[in-house]
């Protein structure tokens, strides 16, 4: 049995704006052709957690190369970044160097984009994803090169990970979208449990209908992870946030306000 918890930590959760994505071919998000001919605007959110005196980021959003990019660009998707994580941290008087942990849900570009701004941080990432990034010639490994090859502190997470050892912030093993995909469970004193999806799902209707994107790594694991996530959400009555859903993320306060 786990040891009894020590006194509850001081915990705050900020939602950061980490980009916007215009999806011109929404059918990519269904392997059962649910969205033929449809388009949708998605958001890219990431999160800052203060645990006592320790700062952690969850996901690092679009790359800075997307600053000022047009959402009208052709193709399946177009992405735009309005302001960087560093800019938002500065509004809180938090220096980039004070981020000591980065948790990344999975290896896609819209989640790893600004990690390199925080080289001193320890990176927590699912082992299945790290293994995939270590395959030779993997283009998507570049944003995390500092941790994969450059001596940055890296913890390859297998299963769930109790980040601070007190049950307040837990990376949840939710494979399927990618081999090592994780979500995040945060236990706040006033708000209660907050459940962050990673890319377990991308928008509310897709979540409700158990939709599986055509580009997921493993359909069976994706469905099992959706089932686990929904049960956790229900059992804990968690504020459940689909990180790419514009309306869903509004359940959390608008920056610079925080949930606690
Ligand atoms: Zn994503």
Map the helices and strands.
Layout: E1 11-23, E2 40-51, E3 54-58, E4 77-80, H1 85-91, E5 99-104, H2 109-112, E6 122-126, H3 127-133, H4 145-148, E7 154-157, E8 161-162, E9 169-173, E10 182-188, E11 192-196, H5 204-208, H6 219-235, E12 239-241, H7 246-249
The structure holds zinc ion (ZN).
Can you put this structure into words, describing what you see?
It is globular, with a radius of gyration of 17 Å. It has a seven-stranded mixed beta sheet. It has a five-stranded mixed beta sheet with strand order 8-9-10-11-12, with no helix packed on it. The longest helix has 17 residues, at 219-235. It has helices at residues 85-91, 109-112, 127-133, 145-148, 204-208, 219-235, 246-249, and strands at 11-23, 40-51, 54-58, 77-80, 99-104, 122-126, 154-157, 161-162, 169-173, 182-188, 192-196, 239-241. The chain is built from seven helices and twelve strands. The model has no long low-confidence stretch (mean pLDDT 97). With 260 residues, it is α/β, with parallel strands linked by helices. It starts with 10 loop residues before the first strand and ends in an 11-residue tail after the last helix. Bound molecules: zinc ion. Residues 108, 110-111, 199, 244 line the site of zinc ion (ZN).
């Amino acid at each position: 049995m786990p040891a009894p918890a020590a006194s509850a930590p001081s915990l705050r959760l900020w939602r950061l704006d980490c980009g916007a994505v215009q999806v011109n071919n929404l059918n990519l998000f269904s392997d059962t052709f649910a969205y033929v001919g449809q388009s949708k605007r998605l958001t890219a959110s990431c999160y800052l957690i203060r645990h006592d005196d320790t700062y952690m980021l969850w996901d690092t959003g679009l790359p800075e190369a997307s600053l000022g990019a047009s959402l009208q660009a052709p193709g399946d998707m177009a992405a735009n970044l309005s302001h960087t994580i560093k800019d938002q941290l500065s509004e809180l008087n938090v220096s980039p160097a004070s981020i000591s942990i980065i948790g990344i849900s999975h290896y896609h570009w819209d989640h790893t984009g600004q990690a390199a701004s925080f080289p001193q941080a320890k990176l927590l990432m699912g082992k299945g994803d790290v293994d995939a990034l270590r395959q030779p010639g993997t283009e998507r490994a570049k944003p995390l090169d500092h941790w994969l090859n450059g001596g940055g502190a890296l913890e390859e997470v297998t299963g769930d990970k109790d980040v601070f050892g007190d049950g307040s912030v837990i990376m949840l093993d939710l494979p399927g979208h990618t081999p090592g995909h994780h979500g995040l469970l945060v236990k706040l004193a006033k708000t209660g449990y907050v459940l962050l999806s990673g890319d377990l799902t991308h928008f509310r209707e897709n979540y409700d209908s158990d939709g599986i994107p055509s580009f997921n790594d493993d359909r069976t694991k994706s469905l099992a992870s959706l089932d686990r996530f929904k049960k956790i959400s229900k059992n804990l009555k968690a504020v459940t946030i689909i990180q790419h859903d514009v309306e869903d993320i509004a359940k959390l306060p608008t920056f610079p306000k925080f949930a606690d």
